[in-house]
Specification:
The chain contains eleven helices and nine strands. With 345 residues, it is an alpha+beta fold. Strands 1-4-5-9-8-7-6 form a seven-stranded mixed beta sheet, with helices on both faces. A hairpin with a 5-residue loop joins strand 6 and strand 7. The two termini are 73 Å apart. The structure holds zinc ion. The site of zinc ion has 8 residues, from loops.
């Protein structure tokens, strides 16, 4: 029996090696290991052996089975590989060529500027924070010292939502400034935070006005904060965006949530003697800012006798337009691929 099993193994492996395709291999497998195959026939003979001979013969039969299975498996893999290569060559396909390019999206110019500024401010220890785009009237106006009779509350400036029983009057936030209060309520003082995001205005659209655009709010609250700290933060930011120092100036400006309030202008980065962008003045108005009004600190639960701070609001859309020389803000949210494809990833 031992000889017969050894012969079966030897002949079986030779037959497997000779099979030239999947069908032939299948036939060999059935012949060797099938229900009426050669090995099964041998196994049936085990019963006729004496009790002493049986264990060794059984063990050998098992080894033969495993060797044949292994040979079949290897041969099948080799045939599959050869068939695939033949297929590819027959169809004129070269599997070593690179694939066809997939269309990939790019980074929107506003997001590109936002990410750079987030990196810059993170490196100066600021938290990057966000607030909801549907905001309560209290957060958007009252907490920022904007009184009930302020014209910004009129429906021709603000997009109001339906009232809710829990939060009262809701609007689409008209600026990122509510995040000042939200961040202070969340983290307390001292705090450094920037808040980029979308804002909404009820606005007649033209080349410089859009109902949806992006801002970035900056806020620093600590002991002994003053105007020089604010100027340093604003100038660092401009240097980060334009890659060089720009000459800047402060003008007085009124915003209810700061006291004193300023407008920061920068020397036009595009000209020396006046151009379209600066409207011939060589200065461009870049961002409002000021020292945080005590009423705003109080609304956020911070004691204005202990802490002071500065805040500024940067038009991200406007900054991206300046950076990339875009002359109409309506392109920014247009979703027009002819525009977007000019800003590759
Ligand atoms: Zn200019």
């Amino acid at each position: 029996m031992r000889n017969r099993l050894e012969a079966l193994c030897r002949d079986g492996i030779a037959a497997v090696a000779e099979a030239q395709n999947a069908d032939a291999l299948q036939e060999v497998e059935v012949h060797l290991l099938g229900r009426n195959g050669a090995l099964t026939a041998q196994l049936k003979g085990l019963g006729k052996l004496s009790a002493e001979e049986r264990p060794a013969a059984g063990k050998l039969a098992n080894e033969v089975k495993q060797a044949l299975q292994k040979a079949l498996e290897d041969r099948r893999a080799a045939i599959d590989k050869a068939e695939l290569e033949e297929d590819l060559a027959g169809n004129g396909i070269d599997p070593t060529l690179p694939g066809s390019p997939m269309p990939v999206g790019g980074v929107h110019p506003v997001m590109a500027v936002a990410r750079e500024l987030e990196d810059l401010f993170s490196s100066m220890g600021y938290v990057v924070w966000d607030g909801p785009e549907i905001e309560t009237e209290a957060h958007n106006f009252d907490d920022l010292n904007i009184p009930g009779d302020h014209p910004a509350r009129e429906s021709h400036d603000t997009i109001w939502m339906e009232d809710t029983p829990e939060d009262g009057r809701l609007c689409l936030r008209t600026h990122t400034s509510p995040v000042q209060v939200r961040a202070l309520q969340k983290f307390g003082a001292p705090l450094r935070v920037v808040a980029p995001g979308r804002v909404f205005r009820q606005e007649a659209q033209d080349a410089t006005h859009e109902h949806t655009f992006h801002q970035m709010e900056g806020l620093v609250v600590d002991k002994g904060i003053g105007v020089p700290h604010m100027l340093h933060a604003m100038n660092s930011m401009l240097e980060g965006i334009f890659g060089r120092k720009l000459e800047t100036r402060l003008r007085p400006g009124f915003f209810p949530f700061v006291e004193p309030g300023f407008e920061l202008d920068a020397r036009c980065p595009f000209c020396k003697s006046g151009c379209k962008v600066c409207k011939g003045s060589t200065w461009i108005e870049l961002m409002p800012g000021g020292l945080v009004h005590p009423n705003v600190l109080r609304a956020a639960g911070v004691d204005p006798e202990v802490y002071s701070g500065f805040a500024f609001g940067l038009g991200l859309s406007r900054m991206a337009m300046l950076r990339y020389g875009i002359h109409d803000i309506r392109w920014m949210m247009s979703g027009d691929l002819r525009f977007l494809e000019q800003f590759p990833a």
